[in-house]
Amino acid sequence: MRSVRNIAVSGIDQLWDAYLGISSSGADCQPTSYRVMHKMFKLVPLAADDQFIDIGCGRGRIMCFAARQPIARVAGVEIGKEHAAYAQKNMEHLRGRLVTNWSVTTGSAADFDLTGGTVFYMYNPFGGALFTQVIGKMRQVAAVAKKPIRLMYINPVLRAELDNSGWLAPTSVLHTDRHGKVAAQLYESR
Ligand SMILES: C[S@@+](CC[C@H](N)C(=O)[O-])C[C@H]1O[C@@H](n2cnc3c(N)ncnc32)[C@H](O)[C@@H]1O
Questions:
Q1: Residues in a beta bridge with 105
Q2: Whose CA is nearest to atom 10 of ligand 1?
Q3: Per-residue pLDDT reduced to its tens digit, 22-60
Q4: Tell me: the pLDDT tens digits for 156-165?
Q5: Is the minimum distance from the CB of 56 to ligand 1 under 6 angstroms?
Protein backbone atom coordinates (compact mmCIF):
# COMPACT_ATOMS: atom_id res chain seq x y z
CA MET A 1 0.00 0.00 0.00
CA ARG A 2 1.29 3.48 -0.82
CA SER A 3 1.98 5.77 2.11
CA VAL A 4 0.30 9.17 2.47
CA ARG A 5 3.75 10.69 1.96
CA ASN A 6 4.25 8.90 -1.37
CA ILE A 7 0.80 9.91 -2.55
CA ALA A 8 1.58 13.56 -1.67
CA VAL A 9 4.95 13.42 -3.48
CA SER A 10 3.37 11.95 -6.59
CA GLY A 11 0.60 14.60 -6.52
CA ILE A 12 3.16 17.40 -6.32
CA ASP A 13 5.19 15.80 -9.12
CA GLN A 14 2.13 15.70 -11.33
CA LEU A 15 1.47 19.38 -10.68
CA TRP A 16 5.05 20.18 -11.74
CA ASP A 17 4.61 18.05 -14.86
CA ALA A 18 1.45 19.97 -15.74
CA TYR A 19 3.18 23.30 -15.16
CA LEU A 20 6.05 22.28 -17.47
CA GLY A 21 3.77 20.71 -20.10
CA ILE A 22 5.39 17.28 -19.81
CA SER A 23 4.55 13.78 -18.62
CA SER A 24 7.48 12.43 -16.62
CA SER A 25 5.63 10.46 -13.96
CA GLY A 26 4.35 6.91 -14.33
CA ALA A 27 3.84 3.72 -12.39
CA ASP A 28 6.42 1.95 -14.54
CA CYS A 29 9.25 4.41 -13.94
CA GLN A 30 11.05 5.71 -10.90
CA PRO A 31 12.00 9.32 -11.54
CA THR A 32 13.80 11.60 -9.10
CA SER A 33 11.12 13.58 -7.26
CA TYR A 34 10.89 17.26 -8.14
CA ARG A 35 11.46 18.17 -4.49
CA VAL A 36 14.75 16.28 -4.31
CA MET A 37 15.76 17.42 -7.80
CA HIS A 38 15.33 21.11 -6.93
CA LYS A 39 17.16 20.68 -3.66
CA MET A 40 20.12 18.95 -5.32
CA PHE A 41 20.53 21.40 -8.17
CA LYS A 42 20.74 24.31 -5.71
CA LEU A 43 24.00 22.63 -4.65
CA VAL A 44 25.09 21.93 -8.24
CA PRO A 45 24.71 25.14 -10.23
CA LEU A 46 25.05 24.68 -13.98
CA ALA A 47 27.22 27.05 -16.00
CA ALA A 48 26.82 28.35 -19.56
CA ASP A 49 29.48 25.96 -20.90
CA ASP A 50 28.10 22.88 -19.15
CA GLN A 51 26.99 19.82 -21.11
CA PHE A 52 24.57 17.81 -19.00
CA ILE A 53 24.12 14.07 -19.62
CA ASP A 54 21.56 11.89 -17.83
CA ILE A 55 22.66 8.26 -18.09
CA GLY A 56 19.42 6.31 -17.84
CA CYS A 57 17.19 9.34 -18.39
CA GLY A 58 13.84 7.60 -17.97
CA ARG A 59 11.10 9.90 -19.22
CA GLY A 60 13.48 12.86 -19.20
CA ARG A 61 12.42 14.78 -16.10
CA ILE A 62 15.98 15.73 -15.19
CA MET A 63 16.85 16.55 -18.78
CA CYS A 64 13.86 18.89 -18.84
CA PHE A 65 15.07 20.62 -15.70
CA ALA A 66 18.57 21.08 -17.16
CA ALA A 67 17.16 22.28 -20.48
CA ARG A 68 15.47 25.22 -18.75
CA GLN A 69 18.90 26.52 -17.74
CA PRO A 70 21.05 28.53 -20.16
CA ILE A 71 23.64 25.78 -20.70
CA ALA A 72 25.45 24.43 -23.78
CA ARG A 73 23.88 21.00 -24.24
CA VAL A 74 21.55 18.41 -22.71
CA ALA A 75 21.64 14.72 -23.59
CA GLY A 76 20.04 11.59 -22.29
CA VAL A 77 20.37 7.90 -23.01
CA GLU A 78 17.66 5.44 -22.08
CA ILE A 79 17.39 1.71 -22.72
CA GLY A 80 13.60 1.52 -22.36
CA LYS A 81 11.99 2.37 -25.70
CA GLU A 82 8.77 3.68 -24.17
CA HIS A 83 10.59 5.81 -21.61
CA ALA A 84 12.86 7.20 -24.30
CA ALA A 85 9.86 8.08 -26.48
CA TYR A 86 8.37 9.99 -23.55
CA ALA A 87 11.69 11.76 -22.94
CA GLN A 88 11.83 12.82 -26.59
CA LYS A 89 8.25 14.11 -26.52
CA ASN A 90 8.75 15.82 -23.18
CA MET A 91 11.80 17.69 -24.42
CA GLU A 92 9.90 18.74 -27.54
CA HIS A 93 6.94 20.05 -25.55
CA LEU A 94 8.77 21.41 -22.51
CA ARG A 95 7.65 24.91 -21.55
CA GLY A 96 10.50 27.37 -21.19
CA ARG A 97 13.22 25.28 -22.78
CA LEU A 98 16.35 27.39 -23.33
CA VAL A 99 18.69 24.71 -24.64
CA THR A 100 18.53 24.04 -28.38
CA ASN A 101 21.36 21.49 -28.49
CA TRP A 102 19.65 18.45 -27.00
CA SER A 103 19.18 14.78 -27.80
CA VAL A 104 17.53 11.65 -26.47
CA THR A 105 19.19 8.39 -27.49
CA THR A 106 17.39 5.07 -27.24
CA GLY A 107 19.83 2.33 -26.33
CA SER A 108 22.28 1.18 -23.74
CA ALA A 109 24.71 3.46 -21.96
CA ALA A 110 27.31 0.88 -22.99
CA ASP A 111 27.19 2.27 -26.54
CA PHE A 112 26.63 5.93 -25.72
CA ASP A 113 29.38 8.45 -26.43
CA LEU A 114 29.96 10.63 -23.35
CA THR A 115 32.33 13.01 -25.15
CA GLY A 116 31.93 16.63 -24.10
CA GLY A 117 29.90 15.89 -21.00
CA THR A 118 30.74 18.05 -17.98
CA VAL A 119 27.90 17.17 -15.60
CA PHE A 120 26.70 13.55 -15.48
CA TYR A 121 23.59 12.32 -13.70
CA MET A 122 23.06 8.71 -12.68
CA TYR A 123 20.08 7.57 -10.64
CA ASN A 124 21.40 4.09 -9.98
CA PRO A 125 20.56 2.93 -13.51
CA PHE A 126 22.66 -0.25 -13.41
CA GLY A 127 25.55 -1.91 -11.61
CA GLY A 128 28.10 -4.57 -12.35
CA ALA A 129 30.48 -4.49 -15.27
CA LEU A 130 28.43 -1.88 -17.12
CA PHE A 131 28.76 0.58 -14.25
CA THR A 132 32.53 0.10 -14.25
CA GLN A 133 32.63 0.50 -18.03
CA VAL A 134 30.61 3.72 -18.04
CA ILE A 135 32.67 5.22 -15.21
CA GLY A 136 35.75 4.32 -17.25
CA LYS A 137 34.36 6.22 -20.24
CA MET A 138 33.68 9.18 -17.95
CA ARG A 139 37.29 9.10 -16.84
CA GLN A 140 38.45 9.44 -20.45
CA VAL A 141 36.17 12.45 -20.88
CA ALA A 142 37.54 13.99 -17.66
CA ALA A 143 41.12 13.48 -18.83
CA VAL A 144 40.63 15.95 -21.71
CA ALA A 145 38.02 18.25 -20.14
CA LYS A 146 38.80 21.93 -19.63
CA LYS A 147 37.39 21.84 -16.10
CA PRO A 148 36.63 19.14 -13.53
CA ILE A 149 33.69 16.99 -14.52
CA ARG A 150 30.90 16.47 -12.00
CA LEU A 151 28.87 13.33 -11.37
CA MET A 152 25.57 13.45 -9.49
CA TYR A 153 25.02 9.93 -8.23
CA ILE A 154 21.56 9.25 -6.83
CA ASN A 155 20.81 6.17 -4.70
CA PRO A 156 24.55 5.62 -4.71
CA VAL A 157 24.77 1.92 -3.98
CA LEU A 158 28.20 1.65 -5.62
CA ARG A 159 29.75 4.60 -3.83
CA ALA A 160 32.68 2.51 -2.60
CA GLU A 161 33.75 1.88 -6.19
CA LEU A 162 33.82 5.61 -6.91
CA ASP A 163 35.41 6.52 -3.57
CA ASN A 164 38.25 4.15 -4.41
CA SER A 165 38.51 5.12 -8.07
CA GLY A 166 41.51 7.39 -7.49
CA TRP A 167 40.22 10.03 -9.92
CA LEU A 168 36.83 10.99 -8.50
CA ALA A 169 36.47 12.79 -5.17
CA PRO A 170 33.21 12.82 -3.19
CA THR A 171 32.72 16.55 -2.76
CA SER A 172 29.28 16.96 -1.25
CA VAL A 173 26.26 15.05 -0.06
CA LEU A 174 23.30 16.27 -2.09
CA HIS A 175 20.55 14.48 -0.22
CA THR A 176 20.06 12.20 2.78
CA ASP A 177 17.06 9.99 3.40
CA ARG A 178 14.82 10.03 6.45
CA HIS A 179 17.26 7.77 8.29
CA GLY A 180 20.22 10.04 7.60
CA LYS A 181 21.65 7.71 4.97
CA VAL A 182 23.37 9.31 1.97
CA ALA A 183 20.83 9.23 -0.86
CA ALA A 184 22.71 11.34 -3.40
CA GLN A 185 26.39 12.17 -3.67
CA LEU A 186 28.28 14.65 -5.82
CA TYR A 187 31.66 13.59 -7.21
CA GLU A 188 34.20 15.75 -8.99
CA SER A 189 37.20 14.70 -11.03
CA ARG A 190 40.54 15.45 -9.39
C1 LIG B 1 15.81 5.17 -11.62
S2 LIG B 1 15.51 5.54 -13.31
C3 LIG B 1 16.04 7.24 -13.35
C4 LIG B 1 15.39 8.10 -14.41
C5 LIG B 1 15.87 9.54 -14.45
N6 LIG B 1 17.30 9.63 -14.58
C7 LIG B 1 15.46 10.30 -13.20
O8 LIG B 1 16.27 10.46 -12.29
O9 LIG B 1 14.31 10.73 -13.13
C10 LIG B 1 16.87 4.69 -14.10
C11 LIG B 1 16.72 4.52 -15.60
O12 LIG B 1 17.89 3.89 -16.14
C13 LIG B 1 17.48 3.12 -17.27
N14 LIG B 1 18.52 2.15 -17.62
C15 LIG B 1 18.77 0.96 -17.04
N16 LIG B 1 19.79 0.32 -17.66
C17 LIG B 1 20.20 1.14 -18.66
C18 LIG B 1 21.21 1.05 -19.67
N19 LIG B 1 22.01 -0.02 -19.78
N20 LIG B 1 21.36 2.08 -20.54
C21 LIG B 1 20.53 3.16 -20.47
N22 LIG B 1 19.55 3.29 -19.55
C23 LIG B 1 19.38 2.31 -18.65
C24 LIG B 1 16.16 2.51 -16.80
O25 LIG B 1 15.38 2.05 -17.88
C26 LIG B 1 15.53 3.66 -16.02
O27 LIG B 1 14.68 4.41 -16.85
A1: 77
A2: 125
A3: 999 987 889 999 999 999 999 999 999 999 999 999 999
A4: 999 999 999 9
A5: yes
